[in-house]
Amino acid sequence: xxxxxxxxxxxxxxxxxxxxCTRAPVASVTTADRTAIEARLRADIAVLASDDxxxxxxxxxxxxKTLAYIEKRFTEIGLVSGTGDPGSYWRMPVELVSTRPxxxxxxxxxxxxxxxxxxxxGVGFTSRRRALAAGGPATGVPVVFVGNEDGAQLxxxxxxxxxxxxxDPGSDGPRRAALFAQRATAVVTIVxxxxxxxxLRRAGSRERVRLASEDQDNLSAYITDAAFAxxxxxxxxxxxxADAKLADFAPLEINLAMTxxxxxxxxxxxxxxxxxxxxxxxxGSGAVMxxxxxxxxxxxGAPDAEDRICNGAADNASGIASMLEMARRxxxxxxxxxxxxxxxxxxxxxxxxxxxxxxAAPPLPLSSxxxxxxxxxxTIAPAGSALGFIGRGRTPAxxxxxxxxxxxxxxxxxxxxxxxxFVQRHDGAALLNSGVPTVLLSSSYGTRxxxxxxxxxxxxxxSDQVEALDLSGAVDDLLLHEGLVRIVADPAQYQPxxxxxxxx
Length: 504
Prior knowledge:
With 504 residues, the chain is α/β, with parallel strands linked by helices. The chain has helices at 2-23, 31-48, 61-77, 172-181, 194-204, 225-232, 234-244, 313-332, 353-360, 396-409, 416-420, 428-432, 448-457, 472-488; strands spanning 80-81, 91-110, 113-116, 122-126, 130-135, 143-147, 162-166, 186-191, 208-211, 219-224, 252-253, 257-278, 287-293, 298-299, 309-310, 339-345, 369-374, 388-390, 438-442. Strands 1, 2, 3, 5, 9, 12, 13, 16, 17, 18 and 19 form an eleven-stranded mixed β-sheet that branches. A six-stranded mixed β-sheet has the order 4-10-8-7-6-11. It is elongated. α3 runs parallel beside α8 (313-332).
């Protein structure tokens, strides 16, 4: 009995030790190591989020300072170029166009009775420095009323025409794009009231940045229902709107003269993504990618504010700092089989433009990237916080590896609905939508109680400063990522499924 009891006790102890091992934090480190990691993160963030960098806006002196600092850190860590271009060691150009509306003028009428639409009744926008379109009788350019349609019925007949459409929230953008795709000279949208014009004018006054490859030579105008009715005749306008609701409605030419003018401040410039790499031991086995955006908003405080610089400490100096620390730790550890790429992207704040440019012209086949991890706004949560898993459900094979690793680490997952709301709002979406298995794992997105106070007080404000950051949760997340990268960089432990990461 005694021997049998000793045997059972040994089994129980062994099973307890095994359970303890499975619950132990993955890539756990000493308190001193955590302190050192946090100090390195804070040092990089402090530099990138300093006033000297001016808010890291693309196309400003702050961009060059940012790029130079990251390049310096790439070199210190021991990365090699990942651009695939011997003539550009770290930098991949991102061609951008910036526009800011300056003025617009709209005139409407019939015969000799031409009236200039008042500013509170109409506004026009163009991406060109100056655009002019005239349509109606004696111009050779038809003015075509398409109602709530997109003019597709007319096909090539829409080319060169001025299209007039009724506003329909939710579908206006695609309809307008379809009309321009049919080579309409201009698109005029009739909106309900002058309050809508005020909102459009206010929104349109801001600078817009787009990829040069996606720049369109368009002229858009917006006119209130009342102003358009006064020009074409109220009774006739009511009949046209009623006809537009009929099932058999077809676009038709209307007898109305129209002149549209708009001018913009336009600037074309080159920004840069930075790409570094840690070569793997097994050539051709694929790659793991770490990415984060280096840009922020520049000056975004109120015009009369004492501090107008939006330093972007959490968003996203923190992501770049974490990526650099990850690379340092990976480089210092056992060599990995797969290549590890670091991508620091430009112009995320303008619509994921740098990431989209990378996806459109990558230096390596996108199909060779077995997993990508985005680092964005990661220094909000304290240690021990629930983990946000952005991208869950889009990459099943990678999902399982992540979930298993989270379980072994002792971490817990947070509010999945909250995480899901950010799927298309981070740089990883550009890769995910191009078929690359991509996720963002951060305790910043684990619960609304943690995220919302940051969004309401510091997000995109001058108050996003390094002094306000809690780096303890970021250290947790970094160590979790380190373990994950070592798993997915090993072909013996992880092989992605075919078509993993494609958009649903």
